[in-house]
Structure formats: structure tokens, C-alpha cells
Specification:
N-(1-d-carboxylethyl)-l-norvaline Dehydrogenase, domain 2; 2 domains; about 50% helix; binds nicotinamide-adenine-dinucleotide; binds SN-glycerol-3-phosphate; G3P_DH_NAD-dep; NADP; lipid biosynthesis; NAD
Length: about 325
């Protein structure tokens, strides 16, 4: 039985622990708060982040990171992206030396503009071939209900990706391997920004032509940046690109789409933060991705406009109008 440590017990950490448990692994799950640990261990439910879902006994929770990490073959990291560096700096000394480090996060760090696998590498000194990324159309609540879904397990070391594929493949979750870590991470972070823009269109009352147009141009923008950085263009057509983009932009379960919808309805970013505890990564990663695009010399009108709306410098309606008014050009440029 593979021992897997999951940091932490938010929506995705808890739902992915279920995937791992269903696949026959022994899972230890770190939570910040004692009451979450108690609910998981005693009532078999994460009442805060995944209410109504029964968790199997092979998932054991603790607030002690050392206890959670002890003896782990695989360490899964799933805190909000902007908090990874600080948390991982504290955890790095207690992580088993040979463990595979897996990022489930979909964001780009503000300031450093690093992807999550790069932050992991810098903070832990682990070589790139020990770091993997899992990304795809995986809305936590649907996964927790065991609705069938696929995803991508990416690692520059193909053998390690295959090992992870084997230990995560379960009754309702199908992983594919990839060696394109960069493409998967840019796809995962960018779809949140496009999800915000699509949510704004929905909040403004626009229909499927509008959302399909934003999704498609969002995919073009994502692929422009990812390929300029060295990603395989086909990754963006796959589960970690198009797949995740479609799931996020279509689903009322998506926190990013919902955040965008509220902006479209006229709420401010501060008002949304005041009513929502869960992370909408795109509201921060729009800034880091925009800066990454600027430094790479890539045109990123959607990230630029989303950033302006999030900062209250533009309305959602002005954003939509600005997309239409842009200089015309061939589709494939
Ligand atoms: N929820 C999903 O459907 C889903 C699916 C795939 C990937 N993801 C990605 O997984 C990552 C985590 O998302 P989530 O959905 O679990 O978020 P969440 O908001 O549901 O949970 C976040 C977790 O991190 C903890 N946390 C918050 N701030 C923290 C801090 N400063 N330090 C330490 N812990 C902190 C919270 O207590 C909670 O346990 C994000 O990058 C997200 O994009 C989410
Ligand atoms: O709820 P969101 O917007 O963070 O999206 C969740 C997942 O990333 C969908 O795959």
C-alpha cells in the first residue's frame, strides 16, 4: 500500500484524498484547524469543505505536519498558490527525502512569477524529476461524488508519471501521463482567468455565443503564452487545457466562474472576498500571468482586462466592449 500525505484538507485536498483512498492508498491528510481534523476522524466528513460526502477509514487527518509526512512515498500539495512558499518553507525539513512531490495547485506566484512546480523545486531543492503536477477538469464536488472524470499526471520523468498514474487510477478517476509540466501548469492557471471573464459575461446576462467566444479566444491566449514558454501546443488541446477550461467556464460549481459572475453583477472584489472563504485563484494569478505574458512579449487582452476589472479600474461591461473593439486581425495570429 502506498502511503500518501496530502497538505491540505480544503475542497480539492479532501476530494483528491478520496480518489487516492478509492485507488487503494493509505492517506494522511493535514488540516490547519483541529475541528476539521475531528470532523474527518470522528464523523468521517469534512463538514467545512465537502459536507455530505462520507470519507473512508483509510483517510486519517491530523494538524501535525510531521505526523502527516512521516513515511510518505508521495506528498501532495494543495494549498492556495499564493500561500505555498510560506507553508512549504515550514514543511520542507520534515518531508521524506525520496518522496515524489505533487502539485494539485492552479496558480502562478505573484512577484516571482513562478509556477507551483518551480516554487516547490526552489523551496525544497528537490530535482525536477521528483516533482509532478496533476491537472485537468476536476471540480472537487463532482469528483467527491465519484462522477467519472479524467486528468493529467505530468512529470519530466516519464517513469515517475507512470508510477503516479498507476497508484492514482481508480474506479471513477482516469489519469493520463504527460512530460509537459509547463503546459499543464500554464493551462491550469490560465483557465481560472478565462473562467473569471466568462463568469462576468454570465453575470452581465449574456448567452452562449458570448461565453463560447471568450472560451475560444481564452484558449488561444493560453496557448500563445504556454507555447512561447516552451509547452507542447497539444497539451493545451488536452485535459489540462481545453478540458479544464470547459469544465471551469461551464460549471456553477467553479469558484472562479462564480467570482466573475459576481463581478459581472456589479459586486466589487472586496465585497466578494468578504462573502467567500474559498480560493478563486484567477483573481490573483491574472496579475502574475499578465506580467509573465508581458515579459514573454505575448499579447494577453483577456488577462489584462480581467486584471483591470478585479482591481476596479474597469467594469465588466467595458471589458466585453473592449474585446469587440480591439483592432481586427486574422484568427490564427
Ligand atoms: N476545488 C477544486 O475543485 C479544485 C480542483 C483542482 C485544483 N484545485 C486547486 O487546488 C488548490 C487548492 O484549492 P481548494 O479548492 O482546495 O481551495 P479551498 O479554498 O477549498 O481550500 C484551501 C485549503 O487551504 C487552506 N488554507 C487557506 N489559506 C491557507 C494558508 N495561508 N496557509 C495554509 N493553508 C491555507 C484552507 O484551510 C483549506 O484547507 C488551488 O490551487 C485550486 O486551484 C481546486
Ligand atoms: O472552482 P475552481 O474555479 O477553482 O475550479 C476547480 C477546478 O480547477 C476545475 O478543474
Amino acid at each position: 500500500m502506498t502511503k500518501i500525505a496530502v497538505f491540505s484538507a480544503g475542497s480539492w485536498g479532501t476530494a483528491f484524498s478520496l480518489v487516492l483512498a478509492d485507488a487503494g492508498n493509505d492517506v494522511s491528510l493535514w488540516a490547519r484547524r483541529g475541528e476539521v481534523v475531528e470532523a474527518i476522524n470522528e464523523r468521517r466528513e469534512n463538514t467545512d469543505y465537502l459536507p455530505g460526502i462520507e470519507l473512508p477509514p483509510s483517510i486519517a487527518a491530523s494538524t501535525d505536519p510531521e505526523e502527516v509526512a512521516a513515511g510518505a512515498d508521495v506528498v501532495v500539495l494543495t494549498v492556495p498558490s499564493q500561500s505555498l512558499r510560506e507553508n512549504l518553507t515550514a514543511w520542507a525539513p520534515i518531508l521524506p527525502e525520496k518522496a515524489t512531490l505533487v502539485s494539485l495547485m492552479k496558480g502562478v506566484e505573484l512577484g516571482s512569477l513562478m509556477r507551483m512546480s518551480e516554487v516547490i523545486q526552489e523551496v525544497t531543492d528537490a530535482p525536477a524529476d521528483r516533482i509532478a503536477v496533476i491537472s485537468g477538469p476536476n471540480l472537487a464536488r463532482e469528483i467527491a461524488r465519484r462522477e467519472p472524470a479524467a486528468s493529467v499526471v505530468a512529470c519530466v520523468d516519464e517513469e515517475r508519471a507512470k508510477q503516479l498514474q498507476a497508484i492514482t487510477h481508480g474506479p471513477s478517476w482516469r489519469p493520463y501521463t504527460s512530460v509537459d509540466v509547463l503546459g499543464c501548469e500554464i493551462g491550469g492557471a490560465y483557465k481560472n482567468v478565462v473562467g473569471l471573464a466568462v463568469g462576468m459575461a454570465v453575470g452581465l446576462g449574456f448567452g452562449d455565443n458570448t461565453t463560447a467566444s471568450v472560451i475560444t479566444r481564452g484558449l488561444a491566449e493560453t496557448a500563445r503564452l504556454a507555447t512561447a514558454q516552451g509547452a507542447n501546443p497539444l497539451t493545451l488541446m488536452g485535459l489540462a487545457g481545453l478540458g479544464d477550461l470547459v469544465a471551469t467556464c461551464s460549471s456553477p460549481l467553479s469558484r472562479n466562474r462564480t467570482f466573475g459572475e459576481r463581478l459581472g453583477q456589479g459586486m466589487t472584489t472586496e465585497e466578494i472576498y468578504a462573502t467567500n472563504r474559498q480560493v478563486a485563484e484567477g483573481a490573483k494569478s491574472c496579475k502574475s500571468l499578465l506580467e509573465l505574458a508581458r515579459r514573454t512579449g505575448v499579447d494577453a487582452p483577456i488577462a489584462e482586462a480581467v486584471d483591470a476589472v478585479v482591481d476596479g479600474k474597469m467594469t465588466a461591461l467595458d471589458m466585453m466592449n473592449s474585446f469587440i473593439a480591439r483592432d481586427t486581425k486574422p484568427e490564427l495570429h
